[in-house]
């Protein structure tokens, strides 16, 4: 509609205003008019060549002036509560709670078995959990809570079965102890159940179920990791995970009413639509674990270098949501479209800064602790800094995904990952010891820079901010 030339003899802007009046009568300001115009195909070139205005924003200002409001403007959305912010900030910590029992698991299984089990469980849970939540959220968004519940219920169970079968194969091929299967099943069950409880906004339940494991795990460390308590700590951890799974399934009670017969094809369509999300999760997990698995048996400062990133992931998620909300708020506050670009870039800069600052504070505390125990090295500082930069890249990636730019994120991440693999294969020996560290640091800096460049093509497009 927009790209059509105006009727001869009629003011082109007036003709445009009359055509978009049904859509723009409730617009709060010219920015929302610009969102409608852009979503219907308007470009800066059309605005200039057909309507005589320098860009879409300037044209939208004139259209908004000519379209009288049809109804009273609705009030601003209710501000976020502190509780909601606290919940989001806790998400990174939630997934780290089982680590309180890892030292005891190490005592029972040994380093090779623990490393193999955790790498397999982390990668599988990352991919399966992200794909499962994507399908469930899609069904909710289409007004199908019945389908969302069934997807979660069967998805969690199937994920545990698939992970258990994969762990059994891993045990057989690598000649690992059978306890690795239990480790993988428990870790996957916990990760997927936490995803369900997060969807239900019941993060506090996870903290409650895992509290005994955390307390006992801390006491176990304080007492010097006595081998006589290995089994007790692991047993309490299994009980805590079991309670978390039960709590998740309690929230997945079947909704009232009959489930319609179109459920299987509807779910199948959403599964196919979620494959790019699963691919993104796979690439993200592979990118991070490709480096981090090399440090699991390395000195302490390298082995725990990912901790600041893990603890800060909730903050990264929070900032990505806040950025989108800031865009919506700007649409309500700014009168003229040309005023949108600078504030939205400033909001993005603040988001990146906070996404780097929070893991940076965790990293500083970690490095200070290592220094006090004479464990701090140059490589430790570098690899910890690399994980902090990765938090900024994740934030930028989340913003791009929210803007519908997932294919670009996949392309950039895949390209940088390929470069990382090639650089490690050819340069790590020359940069030894642990030559992967400076390569990983440089790779994360490049990843962040490229994602910012991609974001620059869309960050000021107003239709990407819901109103």
From TrEMBL:
Membrane spanning stretches: 100-129, 150-170, 176-197, 204-221, 233-250, 342-368, 380-401, 408-427, 439-465
Q: Which domain of life is it from?
A: Bacteria
The UniProt keywords, alphabetically, are: Membrane, Transmembrane, Transmembrane helix
Q: What is this protein called?
A: Uncharacterized protein
> What's the source species for this entry?
Phytohabitans rumicis
